[in-house]
Specification:
Elements: H1 3-21, H2 28-36, E1 57-60, E2 63-65, H3 68-77, E3 85-89, H4 95-103, E4 106-111, H5 114-126, E5 132-136, E6 149-154, H6 163-167, E7 169-179, E8 186-193, E9 199-207
Parallel strand pairs: 3-4, 3-6, 4-5, 6-7
Antiparallel strand pairs: 1-2, 7-8, 8-9
Helix pairs in contact: 1-3, 2-4
């Protein structure tokens, strides 16, 4: 499968899931970001032959690079603007962070596995993503120094909504997060915070993510 084939498959997945997500197609900004970011740069050498397959791939340390459609729909649901500041929990390979870096002004990404954080940071630097910063820390605690955030994206499943992350979300902001037990039934949720600080949660899709590690 080529990168063009992958993009067409992502578009078809959007159409197929529109009744749940409310998004029949990726926006032009998100689609262009997906086209610009080369997934093969973010997978281990042993997996590069599969980089354009619409499926998750192992990246070591029990972690995965997410299915490209899931990356796309999670990004789409954030409704990012070029001025936004984004918090990502679970840097992993750095692929999702790169796509966020194409769309937002600043991205702060937290990874609990030091080796993955170092590798992702090096890849992002090599590819010129100066607006993405990576650090090793407990993702449940977010990154309070740069809060509040216009958007928060969590790329591993939490058993419950982390209070620190909702606290760091700006009024009017959006969070996309998988919720559910480790390796059990999980659902992708869109969390919104209104101007008064009230939180609303909407279920989007059933998903399967590795668990969000708590230090």
């Amino acid at each position: 499968m080529s990168s063009r084939d992958l993009l067409e498959e992502i578009k078809q997945d959007f159409a197929d899931t529109a009744r749940w997500t409310g998004r029949a197609a990726p926006s032009p900004r998100v689609f262009e970001a997906l086209a610009r970011v080369r997934r093969e740069e973010f997978v281990p050498a042993s997996e590069r032959a599969y980089a354009h397959i619409n499926a998750p791939l192992p990246i070591g340390h029990g972690q995965t690079i997410s299915q490209p459609y899931i990356v796309a729909i999670m990004t789409e649901l954030l409704d990012l603007e070029p001025t936004h500041t984004v918090l990502e929990i679970g840097t992993g390979s750095g692929y999702q962070a790169a796509i966020l870096g194409e769309l937002a002004a600043r991205v702060f990404s937290v990874e609990t596995v030091p080796e993955l954080a170092a590798r992702a940071a090096a890849t992002l630097r090599r590819l010129g993503y100066a607006n993405v910063e990576v650090r090793t820390a407990d993702g449940w605690q977010g990154w309070s120094e740069h809060a509040p955030y216009d958007a928060v994206i969590v790329t591993a499943a939490a058993a419950e909504l982390p209070a620190a992350l909702t606290a760091q979300l700006k009024p009017g902001g959006r969070m996309i997060i998988p919720i559910g037990p480790a390796y059990g039934e999980q659902e992708l949720r869109l969390i919104t915070k209104d101007a008064a600080g009230a939180i609303t949660s909407a279920t989007i899709l059933p998903v399967a993510f590795v668990p969000l590690v708590r230090r």
